[in-house]
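Question:
Write out your own:
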Amino acid sequence: MKRTLALPAVAVSLSSLASLTSLAAQQPRYASVDFPDRTHVRAEVAATEAEREKGLMKRTSLGDTDGMLFVFDAPGLHAFWMKDTLIPLDMLWLDATGKVVSVAESVPPCKTPECPTYPPRAAASYVLEVNAGFAKKHTVRVGDTLAVSGIDLKKPLPQ
């Protein structure tokens, strides 16, 4: 009789664990990005194709020190656009070491059916999106190195 009672408890526990694992996979992951002026940004990580496609679409605001870090499988000229993005943004392209290789400042939301794309000037492995004006306010320039923690820049995140 104890066996009969123990099996359903194990099944519930495994089922609960699977639910928690699934829920955890749906929760945003965050990285910390530190700038040369000691400003700290908490960045939601977009590492999967679906996360990168959605990005900051439909968001009506972004905290002053919040952002989104797009993680790509390989370095490339990853162009961005502002389709369905409601807030103006700065885009910072980073190489595999965290060095800023390109900056697009105060990119406006796209309000037309055809949206322009914003390509970087050099290959990048990551793109950090922050509020428009952030790069100017914190004097971010190409060649600056940002300290990224919470993810290993040398290893791709699991998809």
Summary: The helical segments are 2-26, 49-54, 134-137. The chain has one domain: 28-149. The CA atoms of residues 32 and 149 lie 5 Å apart. The domain at 28-149 is CATH 2.60.120.1140 (Jelly Rolls).
